[in-house]
Design a protein that fits this description.
320 residues, mainly alpha, Ribonucleotide Reductase, subunit A, 72% helix, globular, binds fe (ii) ion, fatty acid biosynthesis, oxidoreductase
């Protein structure tokens, strides 16, 4: 027999269309807040144009060689991963335009967000090519492979899953850009990625506030969406060529790893929304909350084991 509390019944009746409608006011408020705090910035100002010169091929310039790059080895790997992630914007736009629609406040947000994200790849590619930080031929070939694959959210069941995913993903992207800048060894790169990271933070705030509203109007469904997304989280760039190897290097390099994922991405959002303390959930919501709590504890244990392994490896490297 299914136990149906009045609370659960209330949550259960939400369709995606009804939720989009119910959240429209919040989207409008958050959109206006975002437009009020987002500062205009120019990608061309972050690029060291006078360092640039022609490449081989049509312009008969100098071919790229690794010794031209001022960026650290780990910085080069992370910059390519982060740029390819940004490059897949057409697929992300398609995903959110399909789920959120292109009308009203939702549509205005979808287009504005897309325009802001477009700036990220522009700034990064201009910087990488002008400063000869990475192999331009490999970068272009990877871009073709990655974009030809497209991107689909792992959680296509509902718009709440999408909102939950992007709330965590925008923060993950912010942290990854920030740490890449720090580890790049080039202050010009660091400054550009810090600027991009500021945008990603505002995107995270938008989606996090939307998720807070969803937790109020449909707490059980929102809780289940958060659990589903957190336990199966993957970075948006997971399909790119060589991702596993690059991700492993970035983990050891302190750009993105289990500890960072737990402490700097999942925990801040969960704590801000008080997800694990939300009372009076129905049976499904309560189960999701408990599973989420268990998952976070398990993830922390894994992160402790990872930290130990990483420290040993770094100590061994320092000696050799
Ligand atoms: Fe971005
Ligand atoms: Fe973003």
């Amino acid at each position: 027999m299914t136990v149906t509390s009045p609370h659960l019944a209330r949550s259960d009746v939400w369709s995606d269309a009804a939720l989009l409608h119910a959240l429209e006011e919040v989207v409008e408020r958050e959109l206006n807040r975002h437009l009020g705090v987002a500062k205009e910035w120019m990608p061309h100002e972050y690029v060291p144009w006078s360092d640039g010169r022609n490449f081989d091929g049509v312009m008969e310039g100098e071919a790229w060689a690794p010794d031209q790059s001022k960026v650290t080895a780990i910085g080069r790997i992370a910059l390519v991963v982060n740029l390819l992630t940004e490059d897949n914007l057409p697929s992300y736009h398609h995903e959110i335009a399909t789920l959120f629609g292109r009308d009203g406040a939702w549509g205005t947000w979808v287009h504005r967000w897309t325009a802001e994200e477009g700036r990220h790849a522009i700034a990064m590619r201009d910087y990488l090519l002008t400063s000869r930080a990475v192999d331009p031929v490999e970068l272009e070939r990877f871009r073709m492979v990655h974009m030809s694959e497209g991107f689909e959210h792992d959680h296509r069941h509902s718009m709440l899953h999408s909102v939950a995913y992007v709330a965590f993903q925008e923060l993950a992207t912010r942290v990854s850009h920030r740490n890449t800048g720090r580890e790049s060894g080039d202050p010009v790169c660091d400054r550009m990625l810090a600027r991009i990271a500021t945008d990603e933070n505002l995107h995270m705030v938008f989606y996090r506030n939307l998720l807070a509203a969803a937790l109020q109007i449909a707490p059980d469904l929102a809780m289940q969406a958060i659990r589903d997304v957190v336990v199966a989280f993957r970075m948006p760039g997971h399909g790119m060529p060589g991702f596993e190897r690059a991700a492993a290097r970035m983990a050891i390099g302190g750009i993105y790893n289990l500890r960072i994922h737990h402490d700097d991405v999942l925990q801040p959002v969960l704590r801000h929304l008080k997800v694990l303390d939300i009372p009076e959930l129905g049976p499904e919501g309560l189960r999701a909350q408990e599973e989420l709590g268990l998952f976070m504890a398990g993830l922390n244990e894994q992160a402790v084991r990872f930290d130990t392994k990483r420290a040993t490896l770094l100590a061994r490297r320092a000696k050799s």
